[in-house]
TrEMBL record:
<dbReference type="InterPro" id="IPR032466">
    <property type="entry name" value="Metal_Hydrolase"/>
</dbReference>
<protein>
    <recommendedName>
        <fullName>Amidohydrolase 3 domain-containing protein</fullName>
    </recommendedName>
</protein>
<dbReference type="Pfam" id="PF07969">
    <property type="entry name" value="Amidohydro_3"/>
</dbReference>
<dbReference type="GO" id="GO:0016810">
    <property type="term" value="F:hydrolase activity, acting on carbon-nitrogen (but not peptide) bonds"/>
</dbReference>
<dbReference type="InterPro" id="IPR011059">
    <property type="entry name" value="Metal-dep_hydrolase_composite"/>
</dbReference>
<feature type="domain" description="Amidohydrolase 3">
    <location>
        <begin position="44"/>
        <end position="476"/>
    </location>
</feature>
<dbReference type="InterPro" id="IPR013108">
    <property type="entry name" value="Amidohydro_3"/>
</dbReference>
Length: 480
């Protein structure tokens, strides 16, 4: 951490003035046009580069993202057969062959174990809610009698947890490398929803490695008793972490996902009588939320379908506790205003809108005007925080910012342009609620070659980050 630093000739904020920004002991101590002649410390002339708060990715799965960066890419697969062919072509080394990123909602053929050649193959869907295993891989996880190898929701999570893991030291190195890559895109903090003991895992990582982001450590439901016994409370610093780690919320699931057709909805999926899946009955959901809240742990509840969101809103209203609703992808028209309750955050992932538009137009036909409806949430007074849900989308908040502003990620017309978010609001949501840089702020900052409001919206994904600072020290620096 640099003790004293001045960034000369910095443009402060969107379209802001050129000022000198002084940092001392990890805080912004002055933003002015003058620097005392006797100022002692490092001076860096950023020559008009724009300084903004650092980005905060409010929904990641860090181990899965770190592993996905090394897995076979299945996203090009347009059928089950193509997914298997990609996995076979990428097979190397010993152990199970793992591919990631398939989207089966529009496949013309049904996945089945008979499609695999000999060997252990594990194919994971883009939304992380489905795993498709070969017969040998099924035997590895104790499911050798499964007829198709397609495991969804809790069966999927259990099977993935049962696979032989890489060495812990190797996984930690991958995670730390992924955090540094995120810092190179302006990220200074993440909320990690990994299905693990995140407090213990990140405490080990910050003790053994340089970690380039702050981490909010979510608590998984199976560790609720352990967290209560340890006295963990949402928002408090994790002891011994040097201020890098914070206790996060308790993660709960109300339903599944759109691509897996398990999001719990008011209307059945086309051609079926199936409305999706409730992961927790309403009474159990409320009881678990209440117990967590009574011990200072804020609930963060995954809810994608409109029925699921309504049930979770009901629970928050009944309990009156602070917390988060994660995803909020399909919302009843009358429910937008209910997101405005004090203490509630809507953790949303704007990159999912363009990614899911084709599937949504089929499975949520006639309802997409209220899907990924971030403008309506903002208009209703909701507090939004943007995340990537990495590895579902890349851990690069600029992808989400661009998707929120443009509502497209290819050359097709904007999808539901009425739900586009203004750039300023998108940046605030992507910076964890910080909207500017002022005296007294933590010096968690990013320095951009260009002012985002001066470039075309489609260029936001390619914006150049020239430096990132965490606690006033550089975690990334290129060109300044």
């Amino acid at each position: 951490m640099s003790s004293r630093l001045v960034l000369l000739n910095a443009r402060i904020g969107l379209g802001g003035p050129i000022r000198h920004l002084v940092i001392e002991k990890g805080r912004v101590v002055d933003v002015s046009g003058l620097i005392d002649a006797d100022f002692r410390g490092e001076r860096i002339d950023v020559q008009g580069a724009t300084v903004l708060p650092g980005l905060y990715d409010a929904h990641v799965h860090m181990v899965q993202w770190a592993q996905a960066r090394r897995r076979i890419d299945l996203s090009p697969a347009r059928s089950a057969r193509e997914a298997v062919d990609l996995a076979v072509a990428g097979r190397s080394g010993d152990g199970p062959t793992v591919g990631y990123g398939f989207r089966d909602a529009l496949w013309p053929d049904a996945p089945d174990t008979s499609m695999f050649p000999p060997g252990a193959f594990v194919l994971v869907s883009n939304d992380l809610h489905t795993a498709w295993l070969s017969p040998e891989a099924l035997r590895l996880v104790g499911r050798g009698d499964h007829p198709t190898g397609v495991l969804r929701e809790q069966d999927c999570y259990t099977a993935m947890a049962a696979l032989p893991p890489p060495p812990r030291e190797e996984v930690d190195r991958w995670v730390v490398e992924a955090a540094s890559a995120a810092a190179a895109r302006g990220v200074t903090g993440v909320l990690d929803f990994e299905f693990a003991d995140t407090v213990t895992d990140w405490s080990r990582r910050v003790a053994e490695h340089r970690v380039d982001v702050r981490v909010t450590c979510a608590i998984t439901r199976i560790l609720l008793d352990q967290a209560i016994h340890a006295g963990l409370r949402t928002g408090e610093e994790v002891a011994g972490s040097g201020g890098l780690l914070e206790v996060g919320p308790l993660k709960l699931f109300a339903d599944g996902s759109l691509n897996t057709r398990t999001a719990y909805c008011d209307h059945p999926y086309p051609g079926t009588g199936d409305r999706g899946l409730l992961e927790l009955p309403p009474d159990e959901l409320r009881a678990t939320m209440a117990r967590a809240a009574a011990h200072g742990l804020h609930p963060a509840v995954h809810a994608i379908g409109d029925s699921a969101n309504a049930l979770v809103l009901d629970a928050f209203e009944e309990l009156g506790c602070p917390g988060r609703i994660e995803h909020a992808q399909l919302v009843r028209s009358d429910d937008f205003v209910r997101f405005a309750r004090p203490g509630l955050v809507a953790g949303v992932q704007p990159a999912h809108g363009p990614d899911d538009r084709d599937v949504a137009e089929i499975h949520w036909r006639g309802r997409t005007a209220r899907a990924y409806a971030y403008a309506d949430l903002l208009a209703a007074g909701a507090v939004l925080q943007f995340g990537s849900d990495a590895p579902v989308a890349p851990l690069d908040p600029w992808d989400g910012i661009a998707s929120a502003v443009t509502r497209t990620d290819d050359d097709r017309p904007t999808w539901h342009p009425e739900q586009a978010v203004p750039l300023g609001a998108a940046l605030t949501a992507a910076c964890g609620g910080r909207s500017g840089v002022a005296r007294g702020d933590r010096a968690d900052l990013m320095v951009l070659a260009d002012d985002p409001c001066a470039i075309a919206p489609e260029g936001l994904r390619r914006i150049e980050v020239v430096a990132t600072l965490l606690r006033g020290g550089f975690t990334y620096r290129n060109g300044v």
